[in-house]
Amino acid sequence: WDWPEALLFDCDGVLCDTERDGHRVMFNKAFVEMGITTDTELWSVEEYGELLRIGGGKERMTHYFTNKAPDTPAWASKTDEERVEMIKDLHKLKTAMFLEAVEAGELALRPGVRRLVAEAFEAGVKVAVCSTSNEKAVAGIVRLLGPDYADNIPIFAGDVVPRKKPDPAVYTLAAETLDVSPARCVVVEDSNIGLRAAKAAGMRCVVTESGYTAGEDFALADAIFPEIGDEGSEQFSLQELTTPGAYWLNPPLPIDEEGNWYEGAGEDDAEGQTDSYGDDGMTAAERAILEDMDGPRRPSR
After folding, report:
1. Could you give the CA distance from residue 103 to residue 97 in angstroms, rounded to a whole number?
2. Cβ neighbours, 10 Å, residue 194
């Protein structure tokens, strides 16, 4: 099998369905504890769902207080510099409370995550986690996989890049650090902004919908599933993220469904470059594959 070189997971909503009953709850607790409000549901389930369109917790809070609640006394009375410090303090407190919840076993991995990670490790595929969340919070979730996996999974999170999803910076950084080709990376995401980031980085992307993201626009995705799925109820396996596999990823590698390389694949083109990419992001060999395919490139389940 022609395994991907790297399997890159988003964290929130992919490894764990953390947003509604994890991060949202802790944001609200932090607001109350720091005297921002007495409303324990300042960010309702619906409100937080809208705010998730913005990547990053600090960015989310800044957007909310700047655009939706600018008259909040704790915000309106502060200078710009004080507001920055307030957001940092809120985020630090919220992260600490979130980690306590993780360590107390209040959050669990989504079905199939451990299975797919194990398959990747067994196949020698590099695994990493790429998230807009705080690195400590992400590390807490990754530790749920156990030390054999967690100690060998790099984390790219928080402010490690200047621009957050849907900007592709975090995925580009991961590929560069892992020394892999973006075209040979498969990303598992749960949101539209994460999908757009993965695609902008030139990677293939499988979406596993979460509680907040079901129904978002995933037209760019190579495949869409409700979850990864534990053994016995698998939605997909590592083998199906290969070429050939049970499904084709988009763009495909220059190999047919029987494992035969297309004529000319890997050979120098007219300009002396091997499999150079055109404006559509595909090589001539890859385009030849598409000509042989009928219907959608990748079905959704």
Report:
1. 10
2. 29
Residue 298's contacts (CB-CB under 8 Å, 6 or more residues apart) are: 221, 222, 223, 247, 248, 249, 250
Closest CA to 49 of 183, 261, 215, 249: 215
Q: Which helix (H) or strand (E) holds 3?
A: none
Q: Which residue has the tokens 């020394």?
A: 179
Please pick, among 12, 17, 167, 222, the residue that the annotation labels catalytic. 12
**Catalytic annotation present for 10:** yes
Give the predicted TM-score (pTM) of the model: 0.73
Residue 222 a catalytic site member: no
pLDDT digits (tens, 9 = 90+) for 214-243: 889 999 999 999 999 999 999 999 988 875
| Mean confidence (pLDDT) of the chain | 84
- Residues whose CB is less than 8 angstroms from the CB of residue 92 and which lie 6 or more positions away in sequence, other chains included: none
Give the whole-angstrom CA distance, residue 18 versus residue 265. Answer: 43
CA 237-254-234 angle, to 5 degrees, is 10
Pick left, alpha or beta for residue 157 (phi over 0 → left; psi -120 to 50 → alpha; otherwise beta): beta
- Give pairs for 257-263: CB < 8 Å, separation 24+: 259/2, 261/285, 262/288, 262/289
State how far the alpha carbon of 244 is from the alpha carbons of 60, 254, 258, 260, in Å. Answer: 41, 10, 7, 9
CA–centroid distance for 247 within its chain? 20
Question: Using one digit for the tens of pLDDT, what is the confidence trace for 157-177?
Answer: 988 999 999 999 999 999 999
DSSP state of 139: H
The arithmetic mean of pLDDT across residues 66-74, rounded, is 95
Q: Closest Cα partner for 186 from 137, 252, 141?
A: 252
Cβ atoms 15, 109 nearer than 8 A: yes
